[in-house]
Amino acid sequence: MPEPATPDIVIETVVDDLRRRSNLGVKKYGTTLTENEARIRERLQHAYEEALDLANYLKWAIMRLDEVDQMFFQHHLNKGAKQDGDQDYEDDDQRATREAFSHTG
Question: Are 67 and 103 in contact (CB under 8 A)?
């Protein structure tokens, strides 16, 4: 398979994030992951706790998206669907998204 003409920005961003996290870890713990003397069990526990945090953030985002869907449905149920390209239609959807994601839950 031929190489893409330009790098994948998503992959490049993830690589940059990994490097930043590694540098932060070295500053915080004074060692690299490779040189860290923590036992495998400790590393797995830490990874598990990080995965739980991830699950919480994912659930929060899913719940906000569900709120957006509900607001969108209610808007169209109450107001009726507007014509494609109607600026008010787009603004209402953007407002609903902004409101759902501004909640602290």
Answer: yes
